[in-house]
Amino acid sequence: MAVEENVKEKIIDLIKKSENLSRTNEYGQSFNDYHRHECTGWLSSALNIVQLIEPNPEMGYRKGAEEIFNRSNITMIPQCVGDFSSLYILY
């Protein structure tokens, strides 16, 4: 399988997983530590894919992804997963 196909499959998988991970409690926070850890891993994986797709750090798509990643915090991280997955859908 070509690298491009692997990347496409990974993006599709990330988008599917984001639907559950972007859900929050009534305060907009992660449900528990496990949920937060999953979100952290998701964001790291998603950023890695973006950096592979767009090697130029000055391009808008990559800048947007890195801004979302950098603003993710411990409690509100599921919202960043949702924001980040929107980049994939729009791209």
Descriptive account of the structure:
The chain has 91 residues and is mostly helical. It has one domain (3-90). The chain is built from four helices and no strands. It has helices spanning 3-21, 33-53, 60-71, 77-90. Helix 2 (33-53) packs antiparallel against helix 3, helix 2 packs parallel to helix 4 (77-90) and helix 3 runs antiparallel to helix 4.
Give me the secondary-structure topology:
Elements: H1 3-21, H2 33-53, H3 60-71, H4 77-90
Helix pairs in contact: 1-2, 1-4, 2-3, 2-4, 3-4
Describe this structure in a few short sentences:
With 91 residues, this protein is mainly alpha-helical. It has four helices and no strands.
Which key phrases capture this entry?
91 residues; mainly alpha; 4 helices
Strand count: 0
Distance between the termini: 23 Å
| Weakly predicted, low-confidence segments | none
How do the SSEs run, as a string of H and E? HHHH
Outline type: globular
What is the SS-derived class?
mainly alpha
Beta-strand residue fraction = under 5%
Q: What number of structural domains do the residues give?
A: 1
Question: Which whole number gives the mean pLDDT?
Answer: 89
The rounded Rg comes to 13 Å
